[in-house]
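Help! Submission page says 'invalid entity' but I think these are all valid:
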Amino acid sequence: MFKSIRYDRITLLLLSLIFGIGLIVMYSASTLQNEDPTFFLKKHAFNSLIAIASMIFFAHLPHKYLSTARYFILGLVILMLLISFQFTRAHTSRWIYLFGFSIQTSDFAKIGLLIFVSDHISRYFERSEKEPYLNVYLYLTISFVLLLILIQPDLSTTVVITIIILSLCLLGNHKIQHLAYLGSFYLFGGGVYIVNNSYMLKRLTSHFDANADKTNEAWQATQSLLTLANGSLFGVGAGNSVAKNFFLPQPHTDYIFSVLGEEYGFVGASITMLLFLLLFLRGLKIARDSSNQFSMLLATGISVSIFIYAIFHIMVVTGLGPVTGLPLPFISYGGSSLISNFIMMGILFNIANQNGSGQTFGNTK
Amino acid sequence: MWLILLTKVFTIQIMDTQELSEILIKTFERKMPIPSERGNFFDRNGKQLTQNITYCSFAVHPSQVKSPNDLSKVFAKHFNKPASSYLQKIKSKKNFIYLERHVPSEGCKDLMDLDFEGLVIENSTNRFYPYGESMASLIGFVDKDNVGLCGLEEHYGHYLVGEDGSKLTARDGKKRNRFISDDNAIEPSDGTNIHLSIDIDLQVILFDEIKLAVEKTKAKKGMAILMSPITGEILSAVNYPSFDPNSGRVQNSQSLIMAPFSASFEPGSTFKVVGASAVLEKKMLKPEDIINCEHGEYRFPHHTVHDWKAFDNLTFANVIANSSNIGVVKATSKIQDIDLYDATLAFGFGEATGITYPGEASGSLKNYTEWSMISRDQISIGYEVAVTALQLSMAYGAIANGGYLMQPMLVNYLETSTGYRRQVDKPNVIRQVASPKTIETLKDMLRTAVISGTGKNADVPNMGISGKTGTAKKLTDGEYTNNYITSFISFYPFEQPEYVLAIIIDDPHGSNRTGGTVAAPIARNIYNRMYNLYQPSKLVNNHNDVVQVSHDTEYRLPTVSNDQLLSSSMLVSKVQNSTIDKTPNFIGKSLRSALQTSSRLGINPEIHGKGRVYRQSPRKGSKLSANDKIILYLDTK
């Protein structure tokens, strides 16, 4: 079942650089978040080990099996999301708590949906022209899963996953008209949901109202800008971040890019952004080179997912987007995010390896 | 999209830095004041007359305390109390509760850095006056905001107040102060210390004696001034009744007035030296000339004058020594009004002495052109003229030092926190009051007054005290009543006087109420105690060499260096022993009383805890050398 593979060198290099930067910044940002300054570093290292092991596992697991196991994976995703409602804490059900670990379900649901959507589109690519119910069936399934994530509540993840899936649907030749209907339906649903959850509304209004009280609603956004500005061109130097002293909420997760920008300046920030861009472009190249549509769609979805998380994270941090809690892939602290991203990289490596070796597997047309 | 983001990051980090960092400063940097210490008063020997004691109070917001067990353990260990008592407080339902209040900061330095959530540490500084009542009227006191309310505390307020420093701190997301940037810190500059000419040991002696006498005679008021006739330095100035400056309450508002400087009264017989000086200066009489004192009662053309005792023929010297009113009036009748008026002015009466103290009275003296038929007679025996105890002291100082009226000195120098010293009062001769020959004669007369005259009660064998008594009827509502102001103004030693002592007891009760029976014994007691404290020193330089009198209207001392002045004024007081033979007993004393005791000995004990002293190191009675430290352990039990 497992085969030895050749890792794509460029992807591996980019990943290592991003992950390496992440380790240093995450350590600096988290030192004051716990009595023990290395508390988060230790946990991050542990998570990283699991993440890398998972990556290797999926790199060696031929990704065609993922296609085969699509219903099993979908079932697992829905079951996981439902179970998370058994672990409601402080009105949120985003996590499953097991053996002292907390698993953020939406991170893994994202991979499951990617696999399911890629498979469905590629599997019914031609049939769906004549049999539109197949697409409706897909939309209903996706919408159900997304709804489960939305009511966790995790609006930002829902939005990101929706964007990834809609982009896959576009690649899969779905009618723009249909997608627009779906999109507006989501927007309407999302709008109703936001209005019903005042804290989200506050965050949104604080973002779009330039004169909003800078100390309350927009506190986080303002702090983030100030933190970045403090870095200037070359930064204040490793470990010297001022912001990590509780000026920024969650400096080691939601605002890690601010700390990075503060400690390493515009130089560090732009290099990191460049690495993410290169990783994205490399992922798209792997997708383009892939021999079948499932691999292409999956590779695209993975690349888009990682890139869009990075983009959204930086948008929040730079005040271009509303305050949401999206992690920066491979850099932010957080086991679920780290492991799920490494799993996706594993799948990507497997696809790249397959391209390189010219191997192919039967397209289930 | 990626490019837009990159541009945005660029804009934030490179373009808008200035603007954003301004916001950062405005919003999150706070100027934290670093309090400065109020300047202190010191006596001439460097003994501290005021202290700033910092107290700490520890309180908690019980709901915010995350680790009540740890917190209570820390306090239990430090204050030797069961942890449960603190735990109970921390777990109470109140919003705010004190764990410990008013702990002297020496005892809780290690607690200052505690960083527990919900713990509040408050600092407060209280002014403490170790010499209590004895210095209260002179120094005054401050309110709870450390603002001087009267006396020197008020007068020198703007010198005493230091300038608070500040440091920039940033508040973090949890509203805690962080990032104390030392670069921008402005160090506080403490207030200026004020060094007085007062000798606190002598001040305490004078205060004790005046207090005792006033209480014994049920008098209304007592004042005393001890000054150096050489320099004009005020060594002690006592006002009784006084108040406790540490209590924050003043029972008697009269006690706030520094009467020796601010209260004027008719002096009576002590004033007779002025008329005598004028007569001698005009060479109308010699000391040995005989005056008929008319056996106690004599009708002058316009009024009748009585003596306290029936005298017949007395020499002029004995007229003064025995304080015969008839003799003095007869003697001064030989001079003109203007001569007496000039002599009065020359001795400094009728105008303020210019002491650096708020609210000095100038007394009153009518211009001679307005005098009535009996004014000259009245003034010659000390009526129709109002003087202050300070003016009297300075006038007698002029007799003691050979004829030079000095300006009183109270504040020797100011010393800023940076160590810069500024001299305030300098020895300053205002004028020569009479010829040396006249002054010599007056001195002899005053010595005779103590040896065989009215001042006998002041005599201490072998000390050579000279002085003049005074018993003046008090003028109330325009009529002389049967109440008296008794006084005794003296100087010592006779040859080269180093001290002038003025004692004034206002309205004593009892059968025998004269200056000789009320005030003179106080002077004797004071001289006795002073003698035990300070051996009289022989002047190295005759003060006439030091005080160089020029013939200008103002007699300054430009040729005398500070060192010389210091050495000349240091002659007045001897340095006391640097070792203390017996460590006093502190056990059972309150902090305040322990500090009082130790201040007097010139030691600065280390304090642990609060309440009363239960242990001391070293033990009482053991020998203590200058470098030894006294450690006191206090407890509230």
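Support: the input was valid. A stray whitespace character was the problem, and the output above is from the cleaned input. Confidence is low (pLDDT under 50) at residues 537-578 of chain B.
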